[in-house]
Amino acid sequence: MNITAKVTFLFLERPPHAFRYTGSGCYPRISYLNRVDTSCRLIFEESKEFFDGGTADIFIEVLDSSAHQGMYIGMPIELFICHTKIAEGQISSLF
């Protein structure tokens, strides 16, 4: 299942340098409907990068094919890495 979503990356406590999200190798957990928590892969446009506080339209590949049940356009989502929420947003399209 693949979706596009508009997400905002949250400001996180880190060392004194900005963390950036880029490329196609970011594998967070996606959470929605307060009950679904599954792995996904974020895919960004070539040569684009986003930092904490930035908003982006991104392509998300949901790795569990059965996880798409109940998804709808406009649905709020959250992205986590190791139980730390890194982003939140809404689904723009499903395909």
Task: Describe the secondary-structure layout.
Elements: E1 2-9, E2 20-22, E3 29-32, E4 36-43, E5 49-51, E6 55-62, E7 76-81, E8 84-94
Antiparallel strand pairs: 1-6, 1-8, 2-5, 3-4, 3-7, 4-6, 7-8
Walk me through the structure.
This protein is mainly β and 95 residues long. 0% of the residues lie in helices and 54% in strands. The chain has no helices and 8 strands. It has strands at 2-9, 20-22, 29-32, 36-43, 49-51, 55-62, 76-81, 84-94. The strands form 2 sheets. A 6-stranded antiparallel barrel has the order 1-6-4-3-7-8. It has a two-stranded antiparallel ribbon with strand order 2-5. The radius of gyration is 13 Å and the shape is globular. The N and C termini lie close together (7 Å). The model has no long low-confidence stretch (mean pLDDT 85).
Name the descriptors.
mainly beta; single chain; 95 residues; six-stranded antiparallel beta barrel; 8 strands; 54% strand
Could you give a short description of this structure?
The chain has 95 residues and is mainly β.
* Overall average pLDDT: 85
Shape: globular
Structural class: mainly beta
Radius of gyration: 13 Å
Number of β-strand runs = 8
For the sheet with most strands, the description reads: 6 strands, antiparallel, barrel
First-last Cα distance:
7 Å
Beta-strand percentage range? over 45%
What order do the strands of the largest sheet run in, or round the barrel if closed?
1-6-4-3-7-8
Number of helices: 0
Helix fraction bin: under 10%
Which spans of ≥5 residues are poorly predicted at pLDDT below 50?
none
Order of H and E elements: EEEEEEEE
